[in-house]
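Tokens as discussed.
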């Protein structure tokens, strides 16, 4: 068992604020969120549409910079400079979107390796492909895959660098229930010690989660573990 009381948290976010500003309006999408996630933890993130879930995930991934607050991954702050941020992101963080955004003219294997940072990524991707039923599809182009297979190809890419933090934004929303559950099973079996945060509208996808957090109006709210009634203010 990992000793989460003494180990450095995989993710530490404090007092995050993200506002979108344009001429017409200002939206405070994330409004003072603090969050600590330990090694191996599986955290679900739920909340109504527009509550800031994707915005928060982008901050945690370093894909956007907060106006206030800070994010550290394994004790290393995500730097303000985009280039250095990108290096940490690729090494430490895997990100899975609702649609996997695969490059159409590359094979599944090549897609999985587009952000590879070391020589071990290929062996890692091929081993993982065997575990998640994708080995026979590594040479295929994305358009010949089903939705669930495409999402698993996205998982191969997200895990190619053995990230310590895996973030997924509604990874099953475009899939039928059975395929969605299969994709979640793959995410749950992430590499040992990797922390997982999954945004979803479907509480049944969060079976086995250590914690479920609820966002409303950009703030974390208490939640009973059943997750009932979340989309009904
Ligand atoms: N690029 C943007 N520019 C301006 N406002 C934005 C932008 N992206 C999101 N917003 C606004 O920020 C708020 C939070 O949006 P966000 O996408 O984080 O919500 P969400 O919880 O992921 O919603 P959903 O469940 O529909 O995906 C919303 O009010 C949205 O309109
Ligand atoms: Mg969203």
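Sequence:
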């Amino acid at each position: 068992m990992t000793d989460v009381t003494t180990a450095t948290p995989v993710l530490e976010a404090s007092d995050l604020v993200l506002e979108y500003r344009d001429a017409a309006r200002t939206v405070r999408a994330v409004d003072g969120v603090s969050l600590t996630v330990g090694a191996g933890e599986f955290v679900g993130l739920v909340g109504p549409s527009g509550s800031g879930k994707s915005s928060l995930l982008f901050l945690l991934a370093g894909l956007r910079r907060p106006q206030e607050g800070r994010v550290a991954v394994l004790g290393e702050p995500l730097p303000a400079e985009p280039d250095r941020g990108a290096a940490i992101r690729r090494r430490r963080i895997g990100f899975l979107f609702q649609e996997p955004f695969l490059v159409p003219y590359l094979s599944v294997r090549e897609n999985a390796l587009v952000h590879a940072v070391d020589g071990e990524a290929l062996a890692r991707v091929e081993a993982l492909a065997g575990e998640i039923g994708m080995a026979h599809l590594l040479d295929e182009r994305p358009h010949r895959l089903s939705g669930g297979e495409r999402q698993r190809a996205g998982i191969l890419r997200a895990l190619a660098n053995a990230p310590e933090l895996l973030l997924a934004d509604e990874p099953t929303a475009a899939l039928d229930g059975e395929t969605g559950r299969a994709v979640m099973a793959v995410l749950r079996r992430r590499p040992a010690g990797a922390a997982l945060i999954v945004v979803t509208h479907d509480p049944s996808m969060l079976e086995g989660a250590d914690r479920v957090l609820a966002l409303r109006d950009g703030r974390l709210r208490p939640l009973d573990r059943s997750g009932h009634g979340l989309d009904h203010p």
